Amino acid sequence: MANWHALTGQRDGNAFRIVFHVAIPGTGNNRAGVQWRTALINSGIGGTTVLPDGDGTGGTISVTEKTSITTGALFEVVEDFATNPPETGAALKARIDTYFTALSSRVTADLQLRLTYFGFTSP
Known about the structure:
Layout: E1 4-9, E2 15-23, H1 36-42, H2 63-70, E3 74-82, H3 89-114
Antiparallel strand pairs: 1-2, 2-3
């Protein structure tokens, strides 16, 4: 499975839409006792993708990857990523990979804050 997929760019070539797939921990619960992946899906925050079905290449999502999203194992983040037109493809990929690592930590922490009490009910 891919950590990210590059889609279309701006006309000037200075930014491209990137779809990032952040892994969600499979263990642990929030304060309401709800497993993180379950909270993500049942809250409506996760579980969907902007990518069309396919084999995971050419701007599509594979069945395995889509299943990971619909079950909460992956969370999709879509962002425009600034580029430098003279930059080589290898340099850009390395920069996106580095960004993905930082994004994953940030998104996981943010989701855990947003879903901390998801599922609490009154007696």
